[in-house]
Design goal:
- Chain A is α/β, with parallel strands linked by helices.
- The first copy, chain A, has 2 domains: 150 residues, FAD/NAD(P)-binding domain, CATH 3.50.50.60; 215 residues, FAD/NAD(P)-binding domain.
- Chain A contains 12 helices and 27 strands.
- In chain A, strand 6 and strand 7 form a beta hairpin.
- In chain A, helix 2 packs parallel to helix 10 and helix 6 packs antiparallel against helix 7.
- The N terminus of chain A is likely disordered.
- At the A-B interface, helix 1, strand 4, strand 5, helix 6 and helix 12 of A face helix 1, strand 4, strand 5, helix 6 and helix 12 of B.
- Chains A, B: It comes from Mucilaginibacter terrae.
Chain lengths: 436, 436
C-alpha cells in the first residue's frame, strides 16, 4: 500500500509538492491532465484560506469555513495523492524528501511551504504576542479575546479591566489594518450589547506600524483613506514606530508611549518556511529561497519553489514578488506548464506576474481598492472585496456559509461565532489540552 | 462592577441558574418580564445543541454551527446577566454558590447542569473510548476518525489498516444509532472518493447495545425499522450484549466476539452532573436529583432542578422523565412560571410533560418518527427530522448555515468539514496543546 506512494512506483515522472496552500493547490490542479504522478504533502489535512483568518479570530465567520479538506479538492483528480506528513528534510542527491511517514522519492520537487510569522529574533515578542498565520492561531486569538472580555466583565479593578480591554495590533499591512478595523467594529457594535457592564469607552484599539504609512504595498490614496477610516472608527494609530518590549502586561513603543494591555497581535512580518536541506547560500533575506525565472531553485535541476517562500530574482523583479495569494496561484500554474515542457523536452516559459490589484477591507462599507489604474474606496470597494473573497474560497459549501455569515452580520451587526471551544492558557501561552 | 453581580445587589429576588443548556436557557427566557434578577453561570460561554454533535463528529456540519454564545441569546434581556464560571459548591445554608469567580448569592437556585457520559465505573472504558456529550468531545472524535483514515491510507500492515478502519459504537440509543448510520454513510459515500487506496469493504461499522432492541425509548415499529435501515447500510448490530474490555486495540464483547479496533465511541449511558453540596440522600440512580412536582429539590425551599439532572418522582412519573431536550425546555418554562408564583405568593402548578414524540435519523432519506399516535419511517420522517432540528437551533445564522450544509451534503453526498484542527493524541487521550 504505502510503498506504492512513498517509494518509486508507476514509472511516470513524480511531482512532489510540499504544502497545500494557494500555490501548491493550483500547481497540482494544473497538472491534472499531465502524464505525471502528483504527490502532495502537508502537515494539515486542509487548505487554509488565510485572507479571512482575521474574521475567524474576531468570531465573524465559522472556523471551518476558511478551511477545506485537501483530499476533497482533488476528489476527481486521478493522478493525485495526498499524505498528511511533516517534511523533515530534503535530500537533493537522493531525490527524496524525508517525512514523518518515511522517505518520498521525487522526480520534480515543488516547495510551496509558504510563510510564517517573523518575530525578527525577538524572543519576548515571540512568547507574549499572538500571531495569526494559520487556523489554530486564529482560534487561539478568538479564545483570548473572548476570555479577556469575560474577565473584564467581572473584575472590580479598573486598571485591570482597561488592560483586558486594550487591543494592540503590531503591523499596519493588510492583515493588521483588517484586524484593527474588525476590533473597532466589535467595540462599537457588540461590546455594550452583549456585555452590559462594559462600555465602548472602556475599550481601546491601537495600531502600530514601522513605516510612515499603512498598507504601504498599496497606492498612496488607499493608504491615506485606510488611515482615515480607522481614525473615524476610533483606532489609535502610530506610524513610524517600533515596539521595543512587552512582558504580557506592559507594551513599550519607541515613540515613548507605554500601553497596559493583555492583547497584542503580531502582524509585523513574515518569513519563508524553508525546509531543511536547502543550502544557506540560496536563502535570502526573510527566509525566501532564490529561484530563477521559471521558479527553479538556484543550483538545482529538478527542485522548484513557488509562492511566499520563493524569491524570484530577475531584472523585472529585483526583490522578488510580493507575498500574496495571486503570485502563488500564478506561479503554480506557470510551473505546472513548465514541468510539462521540461518532461516533453520543450522550451520553458519565464514567469510574468499579472498584478490584478489589491484590496483591503477596514470595516462595514469601508474598503480600499487598487485595481489596475483604478483607485476607489468605500462601499463599492467593500462590495468588490466581499465578492472576490467569496468567489476565491475553496468549496461551494464554504462560499455559501461565508456568504450567509456576512449577510447576517451585515444586517444584525452581530458576530455569532464567538465561542471559546479550546481555552487559551495565558500562563503557558498554549491551548489547554482537552481530555476526551 | 463585579460585586454588583457576584454579591447581593438590586434588592430584586435573584434567580441563579447553573447551566446554559436547553433547560437553563428556556427558564431564563421565560423570566424575561419577571421582576427578578437572572444570573446564569456556565463553564462554557456557549449553548450547545447536543442533538447534532454527531454531525460535527462526522464532519458533516461546521463545529461552530451547533453552538451559540449565551450572551447573544440574551442580548435584549435587561434582567439577565451571564458569567463564565465553574461551580464548585452549593451552600444551601448561606444561599450562595461557590464558583471560580467567587461566591454568588441566590434567592432561588435552579440546577440545570444536564448529564454527562456514564462509564458505570469502568475505568478502562473511560480511558480508551470516546464520549460525545459536548463540542470539544465531538471535535476530538472528528480528529480521531480523520487521523485514523490518514494512517490507514499509508500503512502496509493489513491488520493494522483494518483496525484503523473498524468503528464500534457502544450504545444503541438515538445517539448511537445516528452515529453508526453516519459512519456507514461515510463508508459508502466518502471513503473511496477521497481515499483511493482504501475500499469500502476495508471498513467496518459495529453497533453494540445492551437491550434486546435499538432506540428502546421509541415504538417497536421505529426500533425494528431503525435496525433494518442500519442492516441495509452494512452496520453489524449486536443486541443484548455488553462490552467487557477494551485496551485501545482489542474490544471484547460478552457474546464471544472480539474486535480489533482503534475507534470505540461510548454512547451507552449518561449520569446527572450533580454539583457538590447536594446531599447524597436526594441523589438517585444515574446521578439524578430528586424533585417534587414543581422541580423543587427534596428538602429545600428555594433550590430547584430541571432537565437531565432532575428526577421528578411523582405518581405520573415514578422513574422521572426521559433525559431529552423537550423535557428540559418544558420544565424550564414551568419553573419560570412557578418561581413567579412563589414570589407573588400565589399557588404553584405541577409540571406535566407534553410528549410531542421522538425522531431519530439513520441516514439520507432514512429516519424513524413517533409523533403522538403516528408512526412513520423513511423519507418523510427524515424530512420532519431535518425541519425540527433546523428550527430548534439557536440563532438565525446557525439555522442558515446548517441548512446550507445539509443541502450541499444531500446533493453532493460529501461532508466538507473534515478538518483535523486540534490533533488528538491517542497516547495521552487528549488534544495536543497548540502553542500560539
Amino acid at each position: 500500500m504505502a510503498e506504492m506512494y512513498l517509494g518509486k512506483s508507476t514509472g511516470k515522472p513524480r511531482v512532489v509538492i510540499i504544502g497545500g496552500g494557494f500555490g501548491g493547490v493550483n500547481l497540482a490542479r494544473k497538472l491534472k491532465d499531465a502524464d505525471v504522478e502528483v504527490v502532495m504533502l502537508d502537515k494539515h489535512n486542509y487548505h487554509t484560506f488565510q485572507p479571512l483568518l482575521y474574521q475567524v479570530a474576531i468570531g465573524a465567520i465559522e472556523s471551518d469555513a476558511v478551511a477545506f479538506p485537501i483530499r476533497r479538492i482533488f476528489t476527481r483528480q486521478k493522478n493525485f495523492s495526498f499524505h498528511m506528513a511533516e517534511v523533515q528534510k530534503i535530500n537533493p542527491v537522493a531525490n527524496t524528501v524525508s517525512t514523518t511517514l518515511g522517505d518520498v522519492h521525487y522526480d520534480y520537487l515543488a516547495i510551496a511551504t509558504g510563510a510564517n510569522t517573523n518575530f525578527f529574533g525577538n524572543k519576548e515578542m515571540e512568547h507574549f504576542t499572538m500571531p495569526m498565520k494559520n487556523l489554530p492561531e486564529a482560534l487561539n486569538i478568538r479564545s483570548l479575546i473572548l476570555q479577556n472580555l469575560e474577565k473584564a466583565a467581572v473584575t472590580t479593578n479598573v486598571a485591570e479591566r482597561d488592560a483586558l480591554l486594550t487591543f494592540v495590533v503590531v503591523g499596519g499591512g493588510p492583515t493588521g489594518v483588517e484586524l484593527a478595523g474588525a476590533l473597532a467594529e466589535m467595540q462599537t457594535n457588540m461590546l455594550c450589547k452583549d456585555y452590559p457592564d462594559l462600555k465602548p469607552e472602556h475599550m481601546k484599539v491601537y495600531l502600530a506600524e514601522g513605516k510612515t504609512k499603512l498598507i504601504a504595498s498599496m497606492s498612496e490614496q488607499a493608504s491615506v483613506k485606510a488611515k482615515q477610516f480607522l481614525n473615524e472608527m476610533g483606532v489609535i494609530i502610530y506610524n513610524d514606530v517600533h515596539v521595543t518590549s512587552y512582558n504580557g502586561n506592559d507594551l513599550a513603543i519607541d515613540n515613548g508611549v507605554n500601553i497596559k494591555t493583555r492583547n497584542v497581535f503580531w502582524a509585523a512580518g513574515v518569513k519563508g518556511e524553508v525546509p531543511e536541506g536547502i543550502p544557506q547560500e540560496v536563502i535570502l533575506r526573510g527566509g525566501r529561497i532564490q529561484t530563477d525565472e521559471i521558479n527553479r531553485v538556484k543550483g538545482y535541476e529538478n527542485i522548484f519553489c513557488i509562492g511566499d517562500v520563493a524569491a524570484m530574482i530577475t531584472v523585472d523583479s529585483p526583490n522578488g514578488h510580493p507575498g500574496v495569494a495571486p503570485v502563488a496561484i500564478q506561479q503554480g500554474a506557470q510551473l505546472a506548464a513548465n514541468i510539462i515542457n521540461i518532461i516533453k523536452g520543450e522550451a520553458t516559459k519565464p514567469f510574468k506576474y499579472r498584478d490584478k490589484g489589491s484590496l483591503a477591507t477596514i470595516g462595514r462599507n469601508k474598503a480600499v481598492a487598487d485595481l489596475g489604474k483604478l483607485r476607489f474606496q468605500g462601499f463599492f470597494a467593500w462590495f468588490v472585496w466581499l465578492f472576490v473573497h467569496i468567489m476565491s474560497l475553496a468549496g461551494f459549501s464554504n462560499k455559501l456559509v461565508v456568504f450567509c455569515n456576512w449577510l447576517i452580520n451585515y444586517f444584525t451587526k452581530n458576530t455569532d461565532n464567538r465561542l471559546i471551544i479550546h481555552y487559551f492558557d495565558t500562563e503557558t501561552m498554549m491551548t489547554e489540552p482537552i481530555a476526551k
